[in-house]
Amino acid sequence: MSIATLPRIRLAELPTPLEELPRLSQALGGPRILFKRDDFTGLGLGGNKVRKLEFLLADAKKKGAEVIVSGAGPQSNHLRLVAAACKKLGLDVVLVMHGSEPEVRQGNFLLDQILDAKIIFTGSSDRSEVDLRINEVAEQLIKGGRRAYAIPRGGASPIGSLGYVHFVSELQSQLDQLKIRANHLICAVGSCGTLAGIRAGVMLSPVSYELCGITVSRPKAECKARIESLGDQIVHLLGHEGVTTATGVGWEVHDGYIGPGYGIPDERTWDAIRLLARTEGIFLDPVYTGKAAAGMIDLIRRGQFKSSDTLIFLHTGGSPAIFAHADKFTS
Ligand SMILES: *Cc1c(COP(=O)(O)O)cnc(C)c1O
Known about the structure:
This protein is α/β, with parallel strands linked by helices. Helix content is about 45%, strand content about 15%. The protein has helices at about 20-30, 50-60, 75-90, 105-115, 130-145, 160-175, 195-205, 220-235, 245, 265-280, 290-300, 325-330; strands spanning about 20, 30-35, 65-70, 90-95, 120, 150, 185-190, 210-215, 250-255, 310-315. Strand 7, helix 7 (about 195-205) and strand 8 (about 210-215) form a beta-alpha-beta unit. Helix 2 packs across helix 3 and helix 6 (about 160-175) crosses helix 7. The radius of gyration is 19 Å and the shape is globular. The site of pyridoxal-5'-phosphate has 20 residues, from helix 3, strand 7 and helix 7.
């Protein structure tokens, strides 16, 4: 089955720009660096989740859904974009958040208020409990006679990941047009759906670059297992079983850049955010891309990438979360 025949609702402004960053390369004395600007996917201040929602909400609509339930934390980019997409499509939306209501309404949580999303707090700081509550809330709604559709944290399901299978061919036409042969694609890894989709995409149509994921939460082994399992399900969904064993595209996940923990930036994160802003006028985010860029910078400095290499860094969005850390920059 071709991905083009699967249900999809257009929500993203595509293709996103592919931008050369010569001043960053120069500052690092390192390889050629291009940013793939998925922070510019258009809807609701953009980000990688828009590509996933094109397939997830098409599936929801196909199944007759009228209310969407998903979950994560108050500064979740995923939830902000679920809410924005639901408003655009005229669907009701319930967001399940771990912990209790933050004292300050800032960043993504502020945007969720403006979007008038219904928000439920679990009262527990355990992030994985959110997954259970998403399903419970959806079941309650269904018992109450509503057609509810649950989206897992991060939209990390085989259907959501299709957005990043599609991404691979989009990026390839841009590279072909610019006659660029890339050696590495670097991206942040959270719920793993993005890298799983990209990996499935490059399994189906081989590319010149290897994949380099930088996890911001789960340990490397857990990420690799999730990415492989999601990847197999995606390939299955697309009816290409045979490919699973036949391809050997290089891919790696680094877990040395998580710092103090998920959602807690460290000095390397802030350094990366400042460097990108001050060399290229690009805003990273404190949870994902700041840490992934810190990882890329460290790997360049440690000689992991050759100066003759061409790197593509996938900017997955998230800059609204910077505003929840205003104190960091006001002293
Ligand atoms: C969710 C998110 C990621 C991680 O993507 P996954 O598919 O969850 O691995 C990276 N960057 C930003 C800004 C995100 O919001």
